[in-house]
Amino acid sequence: MIHQKLRTKYSLFFILLFPLCTQAQESPEKIMDKFFTDFEKEGINVALEPWFNDDPEGKNAIVNQFSKIDINKDKIGKYTGHEFIKGQNIPSFVALSYMLKYERQPFRITVLLYKPSSTWKFFSFKLDDNLDVDLENAIKLN
Hints:
The protein is of the alpha+beta class. It has helices at residues 2-24, 28-42, 44-48, 56-71, 73-76, 131-139; strands at 79-90, 93-102, 106-114, 121-128. The chain has one domain: Nuclear Transport Factor 2, Chain: A, CATH 3.10.450.
Protein backbone atom coordinates (compact mmCIF):
# COMPACT_ATOMS: atom_id res chain seq x y z
CA MET A 1 0.00 0.00 0.00
CA ILE A 2 2.79 2.44 0.88
CA HIS A 3 4.68 1.50 -2.28
CA GLN A 4 1.51 2.09 -4.29
CA LYS A 5 1.18 5.63 -2.85
CA LEU A 6 4.85 6.41 -3.47
CA ARG A 7 4.63 5.10 -7.02
CA THR A 8 1.52 7.22 -7.59
CA LYS A 9 3.24 10.34 -6.17
CA TYR A 10 6.35 9.79 -8.30
CA SER A 11 4.25 9.09 -11.37
CA LEU A 12 2.32 12.32 -10.82
CA PHE A 13 5.59 14.21 -10.26
CA PHE A 14 7.04 12.99 -13.58
CA ILE A 15 3.80 13.62 -15.44
CA LEU A 16 3.81 17.21 -14.20
CA LEU A 17 7.54 17.62 -14.84
CA PHE A 18 7.56 16.06 -18.33
CA PRO A 19 6.06 19.06 -20.19
CA LEU A 20 8.68 21.34 -18.63
CA CYS A 21 11.50 19.05 -19.73
CA THR A 22 10.23 18.64 -23.26
CA GLN A 23 9.68 22.37 -23.61
CA ALA A 24 13.28 23.08 -22.58
CA GLN A 25 14.56 20.37 -24.93
CA GLU A 26 12.87 21.50 -28.15
CA SER A 27 14.44 20.11 -31.28
CA PRO A 28 16.17 22.45 -33.73
CA GLU A 29 13.39 21.74 -36.24
CA LYS A 30 10.71 22.85 -33.76
CA ILE A 31 12.73 25.96 -32.96
CA MET A 32 12.81 26.82 -36.65
CA ASP A 33 9.09 26.03 -37.08
CA LYS A 34 8.35 28.59 -34.35
CA PHE A 35 10.77 31.05 -35.93
CA PHE A 36 8.99 30.81 -39.30
CA THR A 37 5.53 31.02 -37.72
CA ASP A 38 6.53 34.23 -35.93
CA PHE A 39 8.36 35.55 -39.00
CA GLU A 40 5.35 35.02 -41.26
CA LYS A 41 2.83 36.52 -38.81
CA GLU A 42 4.81 39.23 -37.04
CA GLY A 43 8.06 39.87 -38.89
CA ILE A 44 11.74 39.32 -38.22
CA ASN A 45 11.92 41.37 -34.99
CA VAL A 46 9.32 39.23 -33.23
CA ALA A 47 10.77 35.99 -34.64
CA LEU A 48 14.18 36.81 -33.17
CA GLU A 49 12.96 38.17 -29.84
CA PRO A 50 13.19 34.95 -27.78
CA TRP A 51 16.70 34.22 -29.02
CA PHE A 52 18.46 37.57 -28.82
CA ASN A 53 17.18 39.20 -25.62
CA ASP A 54 20.72 39.26 -24.24
CA ASP A 55 22.40 40.12 -27.57
CA PRO A 56 20.82 43.22 -29.17
CA GLU A 57 23.82 43.68 -31.50
CA GLY A 58 23.38 40.17 -32.90
CA LYS A 59 19.67 40.75 -33.39
CA ASN A 60 20.29 44.09 -35.13
CA ALA A 61 22.81 42.48 -37.50
CA ILE A 62 20.19 39.94 -38.62
CA VAL A 63 17.45 42.57 -38.86
CA ASN A 64 19.80 44.63 -41.07
CA GLN A 65 20.22 41.64 -43.40
CA PHE A 66 16.44 41.36 -43.73
CA SER A 67 16.04 45.11 -44.23
CA LYS A 68 17.80 44.71 -47.60
CA ILE A 69 14.89 42.49 -48.65
CA ASP A 70 12.34 44.99 -47.35
CA ILE A 71 13.95 47.81 -49.33
CA ASN A 72 13.63 45.77 -52.54
CA LYS A 73 10.08 44.44 -52.04
CA ASP A 74 8.97 46.13 -55.28
CA LYS A 75 11.57 44.10 -57.21
CA ILE A 76 11.29 40.73 -55.46
CA GLY A 77 7.58 40.66 -54.64
CA LYS A 78 5.76 39.35 -51.61
CA TYR A 79 6.97 36.61 -49.31
CA THR A 80 5.15 33.37 -50.17
CA GLY A 81 6.68 30.82 -47.79
CA HIS A 82 9.75 28.76 -47.03
CA GLU A 83 11.17 25.33 -47.79
CA PHE A 84 13.73 23.22 -45.97
CA ILE A 85 16.83 22.67 -48.12
CA LYS A 86 19.31 20.70 -46.07
CA GLY A 87 20.56 20.02 -42.57
CA GLN A 88 23.77 18.70 -41.09
CA ASN A 89 24.49 18.05 -37.46
CA ILE A 90 26.66 16.71 -34.73
CA PRO A 91 24.87 16.16 -31.42
CA SER A 92 25.27 19.70 -30.04
CA PHE A 93 25.79 21.71 -33.24
CA VAL A 94 23.32 21.89 -36.11
CA ALA A 95 23.34 23.65 -39.48
CA LEU A 96 19.96 24.14 -41.19
CA SER A 97 19.38 25.74 -44.55
CA TYR A 98 16.03 27.07 -45.82
CA MET A 99 14.81 28.79 -48.95
CA LEU A 100 12.72 31.92 -48.39
CA LYS A 101 10.32 32.14 -51.30
CA TYR A 102 9.39 35.52 -52.70
CA GLU A 103 7.34 36.04 -55.85
CA ARG A 104 10.31 36.79 -58.11
CA GLN A 105 13.42 35.62 -56.25
CA PRO A 106 14.44 33.04 -53.65
CA PHE A 107 16.75 33.75 -50.73
CA ARG A 108 18.53 31.29 -48.51
CA ILE A 109 18.99 31.45 -44.78
CA THR A 110 21.54 29.25 -43.08
CA VAL A 111 21.15 28.90 -39.36
CA LEU A 112 23.65 27.35 -36.98
CA LEU A 113 22.28 26.28 -33.61
CA TYR A 114 24.52 25.36 -30.70
CA LYS A 115 23.60 23.49 -27.52
CA PRO A 116 26.29 24.23 -24.91
CA SER A 117 24.29 22.66 -22.07
CA SER A 118 20.58 21.95 -21.96
CA THR A 119 19.14 24.54 -24.35
CA TRP A 120 19.73 25.45 -27.98
CA LYS A 121 21.06 28.91 -28.90
CA PHE A 122 21.39 30.68 -32.24
CA PHE A 123 25.09 30.61 -33.10
CA SER A 124 24.99 32.06 -36.60
CA PHE A 125 22.36 33.35 -39.00
CA LYS A 126 23.18 34.15 -42.62
CA LEU A 127 20.97 35.43 -45.42
CA ASP A 128 22.09 35.27 -49.06
CA ASP A 129 20.72 35.18 -52.59
CA ASN A 130 23.23 32.72 -54.10
CA LEU A 131 20.89 29.75 -54.10
CA ASP A 132 20.72 29.64 -57.91
CA VAL A 133 24.52 29.59 -58.26
CA ASP A 134 24.85 26.76 -55.74
CA LEU A 135 22.17 24.72 -57.51
CA GLU A 136 23.84 25.21 -60.87
CA ASN A 137 27.21 24.16 -59.43
CA ALA A 138 25.65 21.09 -57.82
CA ILE A 139 24.41 19.74 -61.15
CA LYS A 140 27.55 20.35 -63.17
CA LEU A 141 29.37 17.25 -64.28
CA ASN A 142 33.02 17.00 -63.28
